[in-house]
Write a structure and sequence with these properties.
The chain is of the alpha+beta class. Helices cover about 20% and strands about 35% of the residues. Strands 16-17-18-19-25 form a 5-stranded mixed beta sheet, with no helix packed on it. Strands 3-2-1-31 form a 4-stranded antiparallel beta sheet, with no helix packed on it. The protein has a 4-stranded antiparallel beta sheet with strand order 4-5-6-7, with no helix packed on it.
């Protein structure tokens, strides 16, 4: 089984139902399609297949209080979950344990997926919740709203039984935007030692530090910002506008000497960096990508070398980040809007591409990888169900897991890693790799033998020089001490006679 990176997208037409699709990143070919889904931006979430537990896809239906649930093992709806009310956005933590949903009235719901328990429901904002995002460790929930507010909620406090009858208070409120918040991206690190980016219609993107609860830098753009994408190393982020422009913003800049870099911004609320100024037009034009279509969603590949832009015309453009060159476009969903876009490794249980073991061929049977369990979501809080807290836990068969782990050797890991990081390698070049490697080994062995021979000669020459120097020094010492001994001998004899 080769590691292949895929594009996961959700498309929504103006009327009727859309689809959720998985494409091959290199070729753009459609690997799987999940029908009967029509979701707005920030209303789709995916939990990848992990630890031999099947992944899930969540899609809130537009203008409906229905949540469609899919799994990778079949292209049909797994279940339809009735919600307490229409949700405007959702988010699922990386572990696939909790689902959060926001409403047009500013209310947020928090469920546990395995049990379906509604842990909390509270009024978080005055207006519509536009975006929800968990931190990477799932310890905090971030919410943005049309009231221009950005709130950070501690998940442990939301789950605490002792605080259920108290007013829900946020960890902090980040209030510096003046218009609705459109997107939130969380950086690496555990909460609260992490940074976040927030975008707004007020033409700004703001960089926040959650540990100090302060604003670090404000980036001002010539147009409203609809979506963001942040490099995993936090070196650069991309901001897209409905006008079809994607700006690249570097968070490090070169100082006087080559190889010396410093962080951009960080001076606080007074630190404002304007993107698109006429004075800096030349440098910033090199960091501007023109799509010529409204950009609704952005994503960066796992290798941080490709930028994916989903447009309102249903086309996914793939750009090379260093050169900004358009490599290819996926036009399968033309006529719809790409409301969700992300990249991930191809799921091992993907319908039509299932591989039960590393060396087995493709199979349409998903047996061996169980589907993650999701209980029906409660519509109101129930103290009894919460106290019982019964959940279904999937335990994979240990012997099967161990057998498959033994099959995947270090050699297979290196081969798959090479296949993943090297793009555009043909089958012919792969066939010649062993020959070239063997010739390289022979060349290195010959070089080592020559070096050993030269080392032996150098060692012999060094030993000869050492012996010559030692003999000369010892000989001089003996010659110098002989006359002194002859003068001392008569003195010793006269001494004995006098006595």
């Amino acid at each position: 089984m080769h590691l292949r990176e895929t594009v996961f997208c959700a498309s929504t037409p103006p009327t009727g139902s859309g689809a959720i699709a998985v494409h091959d990143l290199k070729t753009g070919a459609t690997l799987a399609s999940f029908k009967q889904s029509s979701s707005a931006p920030h209303s789709t979430a995916v939990v990848p297949t992990k630890d031999r537990i099947g992944g899930l896809i969540f899609a809130v239906q537009q203008e409906k209080s229905i949540l469609n649930l899919y799994n990778f093992q079949k292209d049909q709806i797994s279940s339809k979950i009735v919600l307490p009310e229409k949700l405007s956005c959702i988010a699922v933590d990386r572990a696939g344990q909790y689902l959060a949903g926001g409403t047009a009235q500013g209310r947020i719901y928090l469920w546990e997926l395995a049990s379906g328990i509604l842990y909390n429901a509270w009024d978080a904002h005055y207006r519509k919740v536009t975006v929800l995002q968990f931190t990477n460790d799932g310890a905090a929930l971030l919410s943005g709203s049309e009231d221009s507010g950005l709130s950070v909620w501690s998940v442990s406090r939301l789950l605490d039984d002792d605080t259920q009858n108290e007013a829900t208070a946020p960890y902090c409120v980040l209030s510096d935007h003046t218009l609705p918040v459109t997107d939130i991206v969380c950086g690496v690190g555990v909460f609260p030692r992490c940074r976040i980016l927030s975008a707004s219609i007020d033409h700004s993107v703001k960089l926040w530090d959650l540990a100090s609860r302060t604003l670090l830098t404000t980036f001002l753009f010539p147009h409203p910002i609809s979506c963001l994408a942040w490099d995993v190393t936090e070196r650069v982020f991309f901001a897209a506008s409905p006008e079809g422009s994607v700006h690249q913003v570097n968070l490090f800049r070169e100082r006087d000497g080559p190889g010396n870099y410093e962080a951009v911004g960080g001076a606080g609320s007074a630190d404002i960096i304007r993107i698109g100024d006429e004075e800096r037009s030349k440098a910033q034009k090199r960091r501007l990508i023109s799509v010529d279509e409204p950009v609704i969603s952005l994503a960066i590949s796992l290798t941080s070398t490709l930028l994916l832009a989903g447009t309102a015309a249903g086309i996914i453009h793939i750009f090379d980040i260093p050169s900004h060159q358009l490599l290819r476009s996926i036009s399968t969903h033309k006529g719809t809007s790409i409301t969700y876009l992300s990249t991930m490794l191809r799921p091992p249980d993907l319908v039509g591409h299932v591989s039960l073991t590393v060396h087995s061929g493709p199979s349409s049977d998903g047996e061996g990888i169980p589907v993650r369990s999701v209980a029906p979501l409660q519509r109101m809080r129930d103290a009894k169900t919460r106290e019982l807290h019964e959940i279904t836990v999937m335990l994979p068969h240990s012997s099967t897991y161990q057998a498959e782990a033994d099959v995947y050797t270090a050699e297979n890991l290196l081969r798959d890693h090479e296949f993943f990081v090297q793009s555009g390698v043909s089958a012919n070049s792969n066939a010649q790799d062993p020959v070239s490697l063997q010739s390289r080994v022979n060349e290195l062995e010959t070089e080592i033998a020559s070096l050993r021979e030269q080392l032996g000669k150098a060692k012999g020459l060094n030993d000869a020089m050492w012996e010559t120097v030692v003999h000369k020094v010892i000989g001089k010492d003996k010659d110098a001490s002989a006359p002194h001994e002859e003068r001392e001998e008569p003195r010793r004899k006269r001494g004995r006679t006098d006595s």
